[in-house]
Amino acid sequence: MVSFPNCKINLGLKILRRREDGFHDLETIFYPLPLADILEAVRAPELQFTVTGRPIPGDPGANLTIRAWQLLRQDFPDLPFIHIHLHKRIPIGGGLGGGSADGAFMLELLNRKFRLGLDAALLARYAAQLGSDCPFFLLNQPCLGQGRGERLEPLPLDLSAYSFLLVHPGIHVSTADAFSRCRPNDSGPSLRSVITRPIELWRDTLINDFEAAIFTGYPILREIRQSLYDQGALYAAMTGSGSCLYGIFEAGRAEAAGWSSAFEVISIPAKK
Q1: Using an 8 Å Cβ cutoff, are 250 and 173 in contact?
Q2: What angle do CA 169, 173, 177 make, to 5 degrees?
Q3: pLDDT score, position 24
Q4: Helix extents (H) in 97-230
Q5: Are 35 and 58 in contact (CB under 8 A)?
Q6: Cβ atoms of 84 and 48 closer than 8 Å
Q7: Are 188 and 14 in contact, with CB atoms under 8 Å apart?
Q8: pLDDT for 143-187, tens place per residue?
Q9: Where does the chain have alpha helices with state H?
Q10: What is residue 159's predicted lDDT score, i.e. its pLDDT?
Q11: Catalytic residues
Q12: Tens-place pLDDT, residues 85-107
């Protein structure tokens, strides 16, 4: 069975307060984009995992697709062994949520393939154990995310008439370090109200709180955002804790040519 885990961007990200459990309460808007990995699972005599496409650093055994299988097998001991093959297309470590998408889509794939009978609420509980962003990919529609990001409320937001440009500078930003640099602040308008305004007005009101601290340490990221605006982006920002940046353009205006070869630039056209 094959599935296609897609990426996401964050439209704004507010760090509201530090919680007693050490995490932070957030407010963000998750928006899915069609850039996707390819995930396949077939029965096998033992658990196997192979990767093509982009190399994935670290221990393969820690991959969220494997952890998803292990998590379900704790409650379903007869769950068969599988060979997982992941063709990686989404840039890694840039805040696009590719790993979280892979884990969430694996939960759905296993549920369908082996008819486990898990409803949406149970799948969401498993997904939350994999990571804070994972539950979003089960809904996979524009959502207001609160709490650690796992509390989701679908929103009537449709940006399919716009084109997007993703810029991956190849810089790894530690999420823990990013949080340590930020000061929580729960003031200002809610993101829910900001996105009801025209996109042209988002620039000064739809803020990612990570940007101020991370741009200080990595000024090239600020320059990339400015370059997106210089090329005509209606709105440009860093996604999540970085380091990928994106620009939202009028249809047909997102131009991938002319960028430094040091950056990977991915164009996502408007939907016709």
Answers
A1: no
A2: 160
A3: 76
A4: 98-113, 120-130, 134-139, 175-181, 191-194, 210-217, 219-230
A5: no
A6: yes
A7: yes
A8: 999 988 889 999 999 999 999 999 999 888 777 777 777 777 777
A9: 64-75, 98-113, 120-130, 134-139, 175-181, 191-194, 210-217, 219-230
A10: 96
A11: 8, 133
A12: 999 999 998 899 999 999 999 99
